[in-house]
Amino acid sequence: MNVEEALKEAMRAQVGEVYAPPSMGSAVRRRRRRSLVRFRTTGAVLVTAAVAITVPVVLTNTTPQAGPASGASAPAIAVPGIVVPDVVGMNAKKAYLLLEQAGLTPMIMTPGEGADKAGVVAGENVILTEPAAGAVADPKALVQIKVPWVPAPTASPEPPADKPATTSDLGDLGDGLTWMGVHVGYLPEGVKWSGNSYAGGFGPKSATVPYVTEGLEEGMYSIQVIVGVDQNLLRRDGQKVGPDTWVNNYNEGGGEEPFGPATTLTASRDIPGDQVVQVLFSPDYSASLGEERARTEIAKVIEHIRLEK
Amino acid sequence: MTDEDEAAFDEFVAARSTALLRTAILVCGASAHDAEDLVQGALEKVYRHWSRIRADNPEAYARKVVVNSAITRSRRRRVIQEITFAAPPDTPVDAPDLGLREAMLTELRKLPARMRAVLVLRYWEDQSEAETAAQLGCSVGTVKSQAARGLARIREAMVEGVPA
Lengths: 309, 164
What we know:
With 309 residues, chain A is an alpha+beta fold.
């Protein structure tokens, strides 16, 4: 047997039995959407992931409330120019679904100003959208759904159990380090709980808590921790820094890119049980530390997240 | 993207992802899991430009992205690989064929990433020298010399791999 034939034979033996999983196409699409969401929220607290939204709501219930563009019930994929529906006053989650159905890319945001630090949480009803109702947007254009700050519920650390699928907060978390069955055991110096938390935005049994440095504008994060059971939160690429733990920088396309002002330093870890945890360092915060220290710190933060017994 | 674009993309993925995955495993010398991630990343790029490239030759484009990101990735892993593969296997060789195959694959993984990519494209994908050169963005002469040197090293491994 000559060397070419022998090599072919060896290669066939190595990969001949490997098949791509049937889910490849949907995995690619999820990845694309997820990376868009991540980039668009650079620096702003990520409250919800487009990918992780499950759609149990009957959409016809919300359609009559829509404004000028209630053509939303028709498939709107290739329509050039979509009139932004009027969703003000609507529950943010319903507004999200309606805008998504209209062919836009909605994102739920808390307002960037007008709140007095702690003691407030994101409310549930939409106060305005950007672009506003009636404006014509490109298909898939980003529409920010803004919700107000409302006083945080006092005392009860248990969130109301009757609406697990909505984006709501986890209540008073004390020091903000223990929630959803995990304990954040380490934060870099000068970083503390923002006073906010959001549940349900990243699929079932998910929540996210932003941590901030002193003087950061409301609605922004320095470090954001996301916990969920959606395996898409786990990105097994980049630098492996520990058991089941990876650190990488993602750019607009979700692709790996060298550390820089337009990338989000992200650590993912598969923790025991069915949970997955992700830690994001905002581009500004990463830049303030410098790459080497940011990488060391993010590895330390994710390493010290443990299950709370 | 139109619905038709989406459907065509699904068809493309269903038809080609296994071939892309196999090539990725061979080029980057990684586990199937790592290679799968790499292929997903490449297909995401394809998806992003799908309406533009679908009529062109999406497979060649996808393969080019897969091969080039596999080269990049394997360069990053190279140091670790050298250490892993430099150690002699601790299990004795059972059958000459198996030992030979292992020796060849080990040698293949130890080659520089681009040289390995040349061998994979030429002998696994059965691409011509010109096609291989186009995929890797180098000249036909480079493909020829890289293939010759790569094969020479594999041949040495074959000779050593066969128990006397």
